[in-house]
Amino acid sequence: MKKRVLFIASGERDYSIFNFLFERKDMECRAVVLKDREGRFAKDLRKKNIDVLDDYRDLKNLDEIDVVVDLTGSEEVRNYFKSFDKEILGRVSTEILLELLRERRIYYELEKFTSKLDPSLGLEELLVILIGSTLKILKADSAGVFLNVNGRIESKTSWGMSDTEIENFINFLEKEKFSFKDTEIMEERGFLCTSYKTSDGDIFGYLVVGKNKPFTEEDKKLLLQLRDKSSSPILAAFKIKSTVEISLLDSLTGLYNHRAFQERLSKELERAYKYDLIFSLIMMDIDDFKKYNDTYGHLEGDHLLRSLAQIMKYTLRETDFIARYGGEEFAIILPETNKEGAVIACERLRRTIEGQRFGKERRKVTASFGVSSYPEDGVYKDDLIKKADDALYRSKRAGKNRVTPA
Questions:
Q1: What ranges do the domains of the chain cover?
Q2: Residue burial 200-237, b: 16+ Cβ < 10 Å; e: rest
Q3: In the CATH hierarchy, which fold is given to the domain comprising 258-405?
């Protein structure tokens, strides 16, 4: 059964106590005594259809009240309600109750958080859950998770952190990463940070939280609890994701492999169809690569493939998808790019490759390109690949080192 409460506030500062107290489903506020009728507190009460009284004696029916929460400390108020045999909570009693309620709420939130942590959800979803719980439990303004990926610290997810703050924090973590070996928690420019470690003590990531007011010892304890509860599931999900990503990468060039290309092209077709978008597909082949391999050896050939992979990454956009299709052939997906834009991108890449010199003898290498576009050249995967491939071989037959649109 709900306790029916009369809340007597001393002013606007009691707004947060009111909100926290009446989060409980077993308490119902029947009326609030508040002198300031125009402030945020009073306006919020009116929105909730809660009566706002000027004086506690204005309450018409005392039988509707079980408990009086009096934050004014007035002896007169206490004596008045005692005469009606009402239960009274003063400021001290209320603050003790609130502290107990807060501890109970935090325990409940931590337990709820722990119950959601299943590595099978995937790394991205786990990190979203972690950030949401961190913001809620610590009442923080911002939070972020940074992970070590191939020796580099990367921001994986964040809330409330600007790009500049993220970049600055990555620099801070790079600078202080060895300090975390012996330190549980560090504070930097309004942010509190702790590290994730494997059982061997190797750091694999960081949990960061920001507040617009000073951190308390309680904040630090809660951050460490969140880290400890999430560490194993996040590490497991991180390993799963890394394993999956490795299976989609070409071991020689570090580009995506043929399987990853097929999966991405299917997704791009679905996205383009669903949202009425366009995209283009580029097929690229190194000219006379067999001759290069036969003349200079397979080690030099491998070095050439790795060098061209780096040139493609540098020359193309971050949103473009680059894969080693097989042998010396590469496939590139350009989202939301028409054929004209794709041809321009190809020409820029072709000229860059032509202008470079490779290997110890600084040899010249060229490449040929074929371009197809969705939906202009087809709406099915096989059609787009075939059109781009046919255009590529027309480039070969026309003398190589050129771009041919379908």
A1: 3-98, 117-245, 258-405
A2: eeebbbbbbbbbeeebeeebbebbeebbebbbebbbbb
A3: Alpha-Beta Plaits (3.30.70)
> Fold identical between 3-98 and 258-405?
no
Contact 209, 145 (CB under 8 A): no
Give the pLDDT means over successive 10-residue stretches in the chain (406 positions): 82 78 78 85 86 85 83 83 80 63 65 74 84 87 89 87 88 82 82 89 90 89 89 84 77 90 93 93 95 89 92 90 94 95 95 90 91 95 95 95 95
- The 3-class secondary structure across the chain, one letter per residue, is CCEEEEEECCCHHHHHHHHHHCCCCCEEEEEEECCCCCCHHHHHHHHCCCEEECCHHHCCCHHHCCEEEECCCCHHHHHHHHCCCCEEECHHHHHHHHHHHHHHHHHHHHHHHHHHCCHHHCHHHHHHHHHHHHHHHCCCCEEEEEEEECCEEEEEEEECCCHHHHHHHHHHHHHHCCHHHCCCEEEECCEEEEEEECCCCCEEEEEEEECCCCCCHHHHHHHHHHHHHHHHHHHHHHHHHHHHHHHCECCCCCCECHHHHHHHHHHHHHHHHHHCCCEEEEEEEECCHHHHHHHHCHHHHHHHHHHHHHHHHHHCCCCCEEEEEECCEEEEEEECCCHHHHHHHHHHHHHHHHHCEECCCCEECCEEEEEEEECCCCCCHHHHHHHHHHHHHHHHHCCCCCEEEC
The superfamily in CATH containing domain 3-98 is NAD(P)-binding Rossmann-like Domain (3.40.50.720)
Is 353 within 8 Å of 295 (Cβ atoms)? Answer: no
Domain 117-245: CATH class, spelled out: alpha beta
Q: Residue 43: how many CB atoms within 10 A of its CB?
A: 11
Full-prediction pTM beyond 0.85? no
Active-site residue list: 328
